[in-house]
Amino acid sequence: MSHATHSPDTPQVLAERLKTWGRELGFQQIGITDTDLTDAEPRLRDWLARGYHGEMDYMARHGTKRSRPDELVPGTLSVISARMDYQPESRATLHERLADPAGAFISRYSLGRDYHKVLRRRLQRLADRLAAHIGPFGHRVFVDSAPVMEKPLAEKAGLGWIGKHSNLVNPRAGSWFFLGEIYTDQPLPPDQPMADHCGRCRACLDACPTGAIVAPYQVDGRRCISYLTIELKGAIPEPLRPLIGNRIHGCDDCQLVCPWNRFARLTEETDFLPRHGLDTATLIALFAWDEPTFLARTEGSAIRRLGHERWLRNLAVALGNAPDSPEVRLALETRADHPSPLVREHVVWALAGLACR
């Protein structure tokens, strides 16, 4: 990294400027930490050793670069961590959508524009603003796009604490927010971490549909619906299919029940508002999308990464969990001879389950 030219500001003043600029750019909070993740590193190693990452080989691929920021980006002295709210609708509405078995429930983070693009652009603007103030400086922007331990870094930077469901929780904002980072060679003063305020609460553990939160602060990714519907490439294990319900892309149950989310605020970012009626769409309507329609309506969305084949796989499972009706059976039968063996297998499972009711 190349160091900045001299700035008249003290590191403390510079940190305060960054926080002000961050708010002006639409972030709800900016925090700063050093690069020491020695507490988080053994927890990551243990999680990987247990196989909880499933097929997510990238979680283990980069050695210690994930837990040692200065190995990923040599010269890194500080990490600027940012959060941006994304909750698009009230908790009551969220519960209603999830409770409708004919409706397709999509995790609320993916209803709008791809958050990677939104946050990366804003963080780069924040870095550019700092460069305009102090001169060129070494930095890299990350938004869930490299081996970065974003939640432990955000926790150290005072943005919240990692809850029992493994998401970051802020006492004034809940957990409905995205995280992004700037690794920098600037020696900025670190913020103070928050205390853990989960207490004896176990709402998230009790609410997880598949029992993926196997113990407080431990998530077995192989059972998590977000993993099963997004990361898993092949067939969803049959015992878990009935537990998925109508969730076709991710799962928000642990956030929905978290008592701290009564303090969450609705997003002010229009980019995060639902597109193409995905917040109210029915399973049958989405299952009818051919591949060109899928690609057109998920353009610029995090859902696009899923691909049409796994989109149909997930919808077939959800239709198999829906109330039996001639319309549901007809929808499934239209895909019974789909070219993909993966799609066909899940359609056969769904039709067999409906026939047994």
TrEMBL record:
It comes from Allochromatium vinosum (strain ATCC 17899 / DSM 180 / NBRC 103801 / NCIMB 10441 / D) (Chromatium vinosum). The active site is at D144. Catalyzes the conversion of epoxyqueuosine (oQ) to queuosine (Q), which is a hypermodified base found in the wobble positions of tRNA(Asp), tRNA(Asn), tRNA(His) and tRNA(Tyr). The keyword 4Fe-4S applies. Its main location: cytoplasm. Its EC number is 1.17.99.6. GO terms for cellular component: cytoplasm. It catalyses: epoxyqueuosine(34) in tRNA + AH2 = queuosine(34) in tRNA + A + H2O. Pathway: tRNA modification; tRNA-queuosine biosynthesis. One of its GO terms (molecular function) is cobalamin binding. This is Epoxyqueuosine reductase. Cob(II)alamin binds at R66, D144, L168, L179, S226, C251, D252. Keywords: 4Fe-4S, Cobalamin, Cobalt, Cytoplasm, Iron, Iron-sulfur, Metal-binding, Oxidoreductase, Queuosine biosynthesis, tRNA processing. Residues 189-218 form the 4Fe-4S ferredoxin-type domain. It is found in: Cytoplasm. [4Fe-4S] cluster 1 binds at C198, C201, C204, C258. Belongs to the QueG family. [4Fe-4S] cluster 2 binds at C208, C224, C251, C254.
